[in-house]
Every structure is written in structure tokens, then in C-alpha cells.
Write a structure and sequence with these properties.
Helix 3 (55-69) packs across helix 4 (83-96) and helix 14 (338-345) crosses helix 15 (366-376). The longest helix has 25 residues, at 388-412. The chain folds into two domains: 8-217, 3-Layer(aba) Sandwich (Rossmann fold); 230-418, P-loop containing nucleotide triphosphate hydrolases (Rossmann fold). Helix 14 links the parallel strand 12 (328-331) and strand 13 (355-361). The chain is α/β, with parallel strands linked by helices and 435 residues long. Residues 220-224 and 430-435 have low confidence and may be disordered. A seven-stranded parallel beta sheet has the order 3-4-2-5-6-1-7, with helices on both faces. Strands 10-11-9-12-13-8-14 form a seven-stranded parallel beta sheet, with helices on both faces. The chain has helices spanning 14-22, 30-40, 55-69, 83-96, 113-121, 131-140, 143-146, 160-163, 169-177, 196-202, 242-250, 267-279, 293-304, 338-345, 366-376, 388-412, 417-434; strands at 45-48, 76-79, 104-107, 126-129, 154-158, 186-191, 214-217, 230-236, 260-263, 284-287, 310-313, 328-331, 355-361, 381-382. It catalyses: ATP + H2O = ADP + phosphate + H(+).
């Protein structure tokens, strides 16, 4: 394909061109240039591109173009693994379709099931959902609520590599079972990592007179795991003083004013760190599954607006979130999957900008680091911004005191009880929906 320099050349409707201009999106990215024309032709599509390459517009624009020709019922379903990604995609659909009275329903956990059922009964044009919550409605909310799914023209799996693993298998099967047969709809898969499951779908033969699947990867996603502008470093740390090293890193000359995301593996760790850093007078927010949806939304807004310069997150924030100002990613805990490291690191060094990813390595992390270095085809270098004597002299005593206070607060608040309470609420909502 020759270089395409405008959305008009891709064949999009004039109203969409106006919407894109209003959003200050004027030039298509590589993935958009290659995939949008093929989706408009009616082809199923698999698109592989790094985070930040414009994948949402790639599927949203052609879907909206076709919807505007026949704006009826439940036209398209987008499934994505996290609430935050779903919110972000819904925002883009709403912004793109704002001049056309588009109805977009956001169906995710942490919100009222009853209100969502009412919204689905109104037959929104596009449903942006996490698989678990949409599957719940399909199984429990009745034909009046979800029957319109049988006439949907599009199914999108965003972050498809993640959705196609065992975690989502049952819910994904329920969602797909409520949609038209694959020969009667367009299926669009987008991913930052081409996995064996994605390849299997890519190689499936076309049936029922459908055009063959169109597949396009930008810069061979598997080979370009991390951008060249990303600096990857490590700090060797004894487990019991990780918080002190973190505080020293966040307050060192290099990062004292930087926007930072700190990734941890457990929700309890995220909460301990948030409270500890707050006691140390740092502007901090957190993002994890034991927060309510409103709290999660507020944290993201605060971080994007720079009201908090540090975001502590579990892997709900590792994929796809559009937070363009991050200068440092800290892997406080090392992930077990090297691809998770890639997605975490993808929060910085976006769109040609530079960024740093620093990993805290304890003795038990060595094998995980070896697997990550093999996956990214790059050796980490040792970070020289924090020195042992400085950590001990400046940070250890006050950080230990702040952590102790934080743990006492969490004990008083019964941290961990929220999930049990939410489960009880969901069970009560289920009973009210069935009665």
C-alpha cells in the first residue's frame, strides 16, 4: 500500500472527518492506514501494533461509518479486559459520534447491574464491555435486555491476546454465543502481542462467501518488543527495604518532578505503598481491583491532571491506557509473564518520546528477569541513581515509620473486606433481577 496521508483517502465519511479534526486527529497512523480500508470492505481483521499507535480509532472509525448508513439497534460490541480500557474506548466512541446522536453503553463491573440492564433495554448502538459483566447480563437479564445482540454487525476484541487466555474463556464464550454467527458479523481483533491463539485465528480459512481475514502487524510486533527510546534499568534490593529505596528513587534529582507509574502484583501492596508515600508527603493515587469504580475513575483523573504525580497500580493499568505524560515506570514487583513487563513499560516512551523503566530485583526475581531480558532481546543496566548509604541515612527510619502507620490504618479499615461486600451486593442484585 502506498503511503496514505489523510483520513479522507481512507474512505471515511465527511462527518467522521469533521469529528476527527475536532479531536485534533489529522493524520492516520500506520495501523489505521492499512486496516481501515479493509474493514470498510467488510473483511474480518487482525491488527497488531504497539500501545499508543491508534488502535481504537482503527476499529471505531469504520464501524461508525457503516453505522451512520443504517443507524439501528445494537450495532457493535467491543470487549476489552479492564474497566479502565472500556471507559477509554467508550469515551472515544462518544467523542467520534457526538454529532450523530450516538448511544454508547458502558457495561463493566463496579457499577449498578440494574441501571446497566435498563440501559441495554434501550438498545444502544455500541456496547463497550468487559466480558464478565456482559456475560452476567446475557445469563441473567432476560431476552428483552440482551436479545438485540443477535443482530449486531461487529464484534471487536481489544487486547485480544489477553482476552483469549484461560481467564476469560468462559465469559468470552457466553458473550460470543449471544452474537450472530461469525459468518454473519465482522470480527475485529487488535493486540499489542501476537500470541499462538491469535495466529490460529489468523490462519483460519474463510467460509460462507466471506473475504479472507486481513491481518497486519506494524513493525513486526513480536520483534520490536520495546521502543528504542526506552531505557531499561534495575536496582538490586533486599526485600525488607524496598519501600525505602522507592522513596529515595522518587525523590532523587532525576525524578523529583516526574510523572511515575509504580506497578505491583497485589492489591494489598498497592494500598500499603499509597498510604506510606502519602504519609511521606508525595502526591500519590492508586488503581487496583478492590477500589470502587468511582474511586478508580477519580484516581485516573487526578493522575492525568497532575494532581497526583505518582500512580501505584496493579496490572489493571498495564494495557492500553492513554496516559501520555509518564516519564518513569517502576516495576516494584516483577511480573511472572515477560509480556506483562512489556505492557507495563509501554506506559512510557510513547510516540517517539524517551522514558525509563526501572525494576526492583530481589534474589528471588533473578529467573524472571532472565526471561524478560530474553523476551525483549535487551540486557538491563544497573541504575546508579540510588545508593545504599543514602537510602540508609536519609530514608529508612522515616519510611519504616510511615509504613507502620499505614499498616495500622489498613487494619482499622478492614482492608480486603470490600471485595466480600461487593460480592454480597452482586448476589442481592442477581436475586432482584430474577424475581
Amino acid at each position: 500500500m502506498s503511503d496514505i496521508t489523510s483520513f479522507k483517502q481512507l474512505g471515511l465519511s465527511k462527518w467522521l472527518l469533521d469529528s476527527l479534526r475536532a479531536m485534533k486527529i489529522t493524520q492516520p497512523t500506520t495501523i489505521q492506514s492499512h486496516c481501515i480500508p479493509e474493514i470498510l470492505k467488510g473483511r474480518d481483521c487482525i491488527g497488531g501494533a504497539k500501545t499508543g499507535s491508534g488502535k481504537t480509532i482503527t476499529f471505531a472509525a469504520p464501524m461508525l461509518a457503516r453505522w451512520s448508513e443504517d443507524p439501528c439497534g445494537m450495532f457493535g460490541v467491543v470487549l476489552t479486559p479492564t474497566r479502565e480500557l472500556a471507559m477509554q474506548i467508550a469515551e472515544q466512541f462518544t467523542a467520534l459520534g457526538s454529532s450523530m446522536n450516538i448511544r454508547v453503553a458502558l457495561i463493566v463491573g463496579g457499577e449498578s447491574i440494574v441501571n446497566q440492564a435498563i440501559e441495554l433495554q434501550r438498545k444502544p448502538h455500541f456496547i463497550i464491555a468487559t466480558p464478565g459483566r456482559l456475560a452476567h447480563h446475557i445469563l441473567n437479564s432476560g431476552e428483552d435486555t440482551v436479545g438485540g445482540l443477535k443482530r449486531a454487525k461487529y464484534l471487536v476484541l481489544d487486547e485480544a491476546d489477553f482476552l483469549l487466555n484461560d481467564t476469560f474463556a468462559k465469559d468470552l464464550s457466553t458473550c460470543i454465543g449471544a452474537l450472530p454467527d461469525k459468518n454473519a458479523r465482522q470480527t475485529l481483533l487488535f493486540t499489542a502481542t501476537i500470541t499462538d491463539q491469535v495466529r490460529a485465528l489468523q490462519n483460519a480459512p474463510a467460509k460462507g462467501g466471506k473475504l479472507p481475514i486481513f491481518a497486519y502487524q506494524v513493525e513486526s510486533v513480536d520483534k520490536v518488543a520495546i521502543p528504542s527510546t526506552l531505557k531499561v534499568e534495575y536496582i538490586l534490593i533486599p526485600e525488607h527495604v524496598k519501600e525505602a529505596y522507592l522513596y529515595q528513587l522518587l525523590t532523587c534529582e532525576n525524578y523529583i518532578n516526574s510523572n511515575v507509574i509504580i506497578f505491583v502484583n497485589r492489591t494489598a501492596t498497592a494500598e500499603v505503598l499509597r498510604k506510606t508515600l502519602k504519609h511521606l508527603d508525595l502526591r500519590v493515587a492508586s488503581l487496583h481491583s478492590q477500589m470502587s469504580q468511582q474511586e478508580r475513575t477519580n484516581s485516573l483523573h487526578r493522575f492525568r491532571a497532575n494532581a497526583a504525580r505518582i500512580l501505584i497500580a496493579t496490572d489493571v493499568a498495564s494495557r492500553g491506557l492513554d496516559i501520555p505524560t509518564v516519564e518513569l515506570v517502576v516495576n516494584y514487583d516483577i511480573p511472572s509473564d515477560p509480556d506483562t513487563y512489556i505492557h507495563r513499560s509501554g506506559r512510557t516512551a510513547r510516540a517517539g518520546k524517551s522514558g525509563d523503566a526501572i525494576s526492583f530485583i530481589t534474589p528471588r526475581d533473578v529467573s524472571r528477569i532472565a526471561a524478560i531480558e530474553e523476551r525483549i532481546n535487551k540486557k538491563m543496566t544497573e541504575c546508579d541513581k540510588v545508593h545504599d548509604t543514602a537510602v540508609i541515612r536519609k530514608a529508612l527510619v522515616k519510611v519504616t515509620k510511615a509504613k507502620r502507620e499505614s499498616l495500622m490504618e489498613m487494619e482499622k479499615e478492614n482492608f480486603g473486606e470490600r471485595r466480600k461486600i461487593q460480592r454480597r451486593k452482586n448476589m442481592m442484585n442477581d436475586k432482584s433481577l430474577r424475581s
